[in-house]
Amino acid sequence: MRINGAQAVLESLKQEGVDVIFGYPGGVVLPLYDEIYKMKFPHILVRHEQGAALAADGYARATGEVGVCLSTSGPGCTNLVTGIATAYMDSIPLVCFTGQVATTVIGKDSFQEADICGITTPITKHNFLVKRPEDLLRTIKEAFFIARTGRPGPVVVDIATDVFRAEMEFDYPEDVHLKGYSGIFKGEERAIDAVLDALSKAERPLAFVGGGVTLADEADDLRAVLKKLGIPVCSTLMGLGCVEPDADAYLGMAGMHGSYAANMAITGCDLLLGIGVRFDDRVTGVVKEFAPEAKIVHFDVDAAELNKNVRVDVPVLGDLNWSLPLFIKKLAACDVDFPARFAVWREKTAEMHKTHPFFYQKRDGVIMPQQLIETVTRLMDDDTIFVTDVGQHQMWAAQFCSVSRPRHFLTSGGLGTMGYGLPAAIGAKIGQPKKKVVLFTGDGSILMNCQELATAANYGVDVKIVVVHNHLLGMVAQWQRMFYEHHYSQSQLKGRTDLVKLAEAMGIVGVRIEKPEELETALPKALTRDGATLIDVMVPEDVNVLPMVPGGKRLDEMILEAAK
Amino acid sequence: MRKFLLAILVDNKPGVLTHVAGLISRRAFNIESINAGYTEEESVTRINIVVSVDSERELEQVKHQLSKLIDVVKIVNLTEVENITRELVLIKVRATAEARADLINIVNIFRAKIVDVSKENVVIELTGEESKINAICEVLSEYEIVEIARTGAIALSRGPVPVKQMEEN
Fold first, then answer.
1. Does residue A45 register a pLDDT over 80?
2. CB pairs under 8 A between A and B
3. What CATH number should be reported for the domain whose range is A189-355?
């Protein structure tokens, strides 16, 4: 059967199991949009291409499938860039299709021409420019394969518009043959033996888990390992949900705004088992002083992560789908009673977390942001997907949302993209329609992609948007308060924007909450009503996210309480 | 700072040089030279880079990050094996009548060649290791050098085993 390139793209997407595209049309992709129309291919029209990339990202994080977005050439694809970089930093599988001007005019500074492959080279796992119809199907096959295997990541497929019109035979390849990439990351068994050996010599081991566990869908195996070892565990921001919050000796999030116990345990442990983490500067504090007494074990799929930021003593290179099951097998064969051996240390760390939990002081007559997040979490069921934007509310959500499942806490960790939340929440809800989706955002972040309120309204996407409204760019203001002598340079939003009216103008319901007593009346009502709802909650301006490890300090030098 | 010569075999696809060069700049690696050319296999391009690094760990990072590129088939650190390294330089020097004899002398001492002569200039070609190239440039700096073009180093291992059959090291 001969079909045109545009049809071939959509048929390829069906072969890859894609059930929705997030996109925005424009000149050079019109042939593709015509086939979307004729084939009735499921497509969500966003209101800005950045929304398309971020919605595809939210979809991918919530489902574990590859997210797909589509834009036209030039400004269409440059608008995707922030979304692509967000996915790249957190290793999220995306395939981003972009239209390119016709092959005859590439390189001539044509109307709406941009070299998106050149632009996205540093922020993609790989990218392709398709200029020949005969390369189209193989390229799409490779793009999905690269995006989802190994350490996942975004792939850009830039297609010249004449390729959409070219006639071709639809013969979708079964296999991928890439000389330099097999997609298989199996390590060496003796690496696991080295871990067991290190454990047998350790007295104060600590597990430190991250987003790699979620990406590999390995949380169950991780929990089995932890149970068998009986060692304390802390998490990175990206790892939240991999360990049940009420698990024995779970110390919560580590790092700049991590828990006292997690940071003290890192500083005091003599063996650190890093699993699917990348020792980002927000989690290590001053890197030379990170885990100063510990041998470091590092499980990772990416060889370039080993020894990148911290020196690793026992590297376990390979897919966690390989290493964790093998680790479990070897632990089962091992007759050491690890939980008994590490009981004293485990109880000591658990006690630290009990005496120094994440903490805030309630105030009369106002809603504290942490109180809001705690209340929302309590009102929602365990299967709720929480999405955050970026800033203070993000850290409070990380501290006070007790997320018990992987893929249920979606946040822009690496890039820290303000404006991530709303489109990602929409993508997550579309990917997981049966689950409830709650977005925590701020009055700064929400306005960065508030055009997507229209998308939520038009498609009836039932997301609950909780705005932690403090009239400030809270995290900027916190740094200015703590380190810049209260010079609130350009961080005050002045608060003239009526977010409830904005929600209504965009076609969704808006509710404002100002008094603490409304947390038990208006809040549950808003959270349980049908349809997208923006809940604008007023909180005080002067609250800091604590604990905090200031830049350039060691993890054990955290500030625990606000200065009087 | 130590220098290492890496031979990188890449899939000969559009954009592959951008990917390699882009990665080097993004990760802030120091490179002394880079060059690329066809090989005995039509689908494979060989990129030779000389990197200067502070530590083994940094060298490992360079190799691992480059290995991650989808189009990179193989990387071998040729500095770690017996090898032959060569660089080619072309130097255009102002050759006045009184300087010409001296220049010819220098060319002979270095076993270089004069490949072009005009009334005012000669173009000297020399192949050799970097130290030899540096030495002739140094000597010629006594004269008026008009311009220099250097290829950067390329290398092959000694013995029968080609890079494509070597273990990555």
1. yes
2. 52
3. 3.40.50.1220
**What does the alpha-carbon distance between residue B169 and residue B56 come to, in Å, rounded to a whole number?**
12
Min Cα separation B34/chain A (Å): 19
CB of B56 within 8 Å of any CB in chain A?
A: no
Residues of B in contact with A181 (CB under 8 A): 70
Closest to A307 (Cβ–Cβ): which among B15, B57, B70?
B57
Which chain A residues are closer than 8 Å to B73 by Cβ?
179-180
Specify the CATH number of the domain A369-545. 3.40.50.970
Same domain, B70 and B49: yes
Q: Model-level pTM?
A: 0.96
Chain A contacts of B64, Cβ < 8 Å? 302-304, 306
Q: Distance (Å, rounded) from C-alpha A441 to C-alpha A463?
A: 12
Residue numbers of the domain that contains B39: 2-80
B134 and B74 co-located in one domain: no
Task: With respect to residue B52, please indicate whether it lies within any of the assigned structural domains.
Answer: yes
Task: Tell me the nearest-neighbour CA distance from B88 into chain A, angstroms.
Answer: 30
- Chain A contacts of B72, Cβ < 8 Å? 180
pLDDT tens, chain B, 169 aa long: 899 999 999 999 888 998 998 898 888 899 999 999 999 999 999 999 999 999 999 999 999 999 999 999 999 999 999 999 999 999 999 998 888 999 999 999 999 999 999 999 999 999 999 999 999 999 999 999 999 999 999 999 999 999 999 888 7
Interface probe, candidates A179, A279, A302, A317, chain B, greatest B C-beta count within 10 A: A179
Task: Indicate yes or no: CB of A180 within 8 angstroms of CB of B72.
Answer: yes
CATH code of A2-169, in short, is: 3.40.50.970
Do B50 and B104 share a domain, yes or no? no
Q: Is B46 helix (H, G, I), strand (E, B) or coil?
A: strand
CB A106 within 8 A of CB A160: yes
pLDDT digits (tens, 9 = 90+) for A428-480: 999 999 999 999 999 999 999 999 999 999 999 999 999 999 999 999 999 99
How many domains in chain B?
A: 2
| Residues whose CB is less than 8 angstroms from the CB of residue A82 and which lie 6 or more positions away in sequence, other chains included | A50, A53, A54, A415, A417, A419
List of chain B residues whose C-beta atoms are within 8 Å of the C-beta of residue A311: 57
Final residue in a domain of this structure, among B33, B52, B80: B80
Cβ contact (<8 Å) for A122 and B23? yes
Q: Which residue of B has its CA nearest to A145?
A: B70
Q: Does A311 touch chain B (CB under 8 A)?
A: yes
* Distance spanning both ends of chain B, measured CA to CA: 20
Whether A529 has its CB under 8 Å from any CB of chain B: the answer is no
- For residues A487 and A217, give the distance between their C-alpha atoms in angstroms, rounded to a whole number: 45
Q: Check CB contact under 8 Å for A126 and B70.
A: yes
Structural domain ending residue among the three candidates B32, B64, B80: B80
Neighbouring residues of A66: CB distance < 8 A, sequence distance ≥ 6: A16, A18, A60, A93, A94, A95, A144, A147, A148
Which residue is associated with the tokens 């017996």?
Answer: B82
Bridge partners of B72, per DSSP, are: B10
